[in-house]
């Protein structure tokens, strides 16, 4: 599953876009100095996310939309089209 696919699945499951999760996390007082475990547990407990999907959201919340280029442009299950994740909803993604 690509990184973007994890985010899209979270949106399908919760009805919230990654950008909305970032705003909700800020309301909780979370920022780049927050320990990932704190955010991870919040996502699991409050939104019922599984570990992998919660981890993907933790990355976006704490580190932003930029990802490693390791799997960018490569085929296969883990390939992403860009090193910049789309945060504004799967239906509006210009690079589906």
What is shown here, in short?
Residues 69-96 are annotated as: Disordered. This protein has 96 residues and is mostly helical.
Please characterize this protein's 3D structure.
This is DUF4287 domain-containing protein. Residues 69-96 are annotated as: Disordered. 49% of the residues lie in helices and 0% in strands. The protein has 4 helices and no strands. The chain has helices spanning 3-14, 18-27, 36-47, 51-63. Helix 1 (3-14) crosses helix 4 and helix 3 (36-47) packs across helix 4. 27% of the residues are buried. The model has no long low-confidence stretch (mean pLDDT 92).
**CA-based shape:** globular
Q: Which range does the strand content fall in?
A: under 5%
* Percent of residues in helices: 40-55%
Low confidence ranges: none
Gyration radius (Cα, Å) is: 13 Å
Q: How does the helix and strand content classify structurally?
A: mainly alpha
The arrangement of helices and strands along the chain is HHHH
Number of helices: 4
Search tags:
single chain, 96 residues, mainly alpha, globular, DUF4287 domain-containing protein
List the helices and strands and how they pair.
Layout lengths: L2 H12 L3 H10 L8 H12 L3 H13 L33
Helix pairs in contact: 1-4, 3-4
């Amino acid at each position: 599953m690509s990184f973007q696919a994890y985010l899209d699945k979270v949106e399908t499951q919760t009805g919230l876009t990654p950008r909305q999760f970032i705003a909700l996390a800020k309301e909780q007082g979370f920022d780049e100095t927050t320990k990932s475990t704190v955010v991870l547990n919040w996502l699991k407990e409050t939104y019922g996310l599984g570990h992998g999907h919660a981890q993907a959201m933790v990355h976006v919340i704490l580190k932003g939309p930029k990802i490693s280029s390791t799997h960018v442009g490569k085929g296969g299950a883990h390939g992403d089209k860009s090193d910049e994740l789309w945060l504004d909803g799967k239906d509006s993604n210009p690079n589906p």
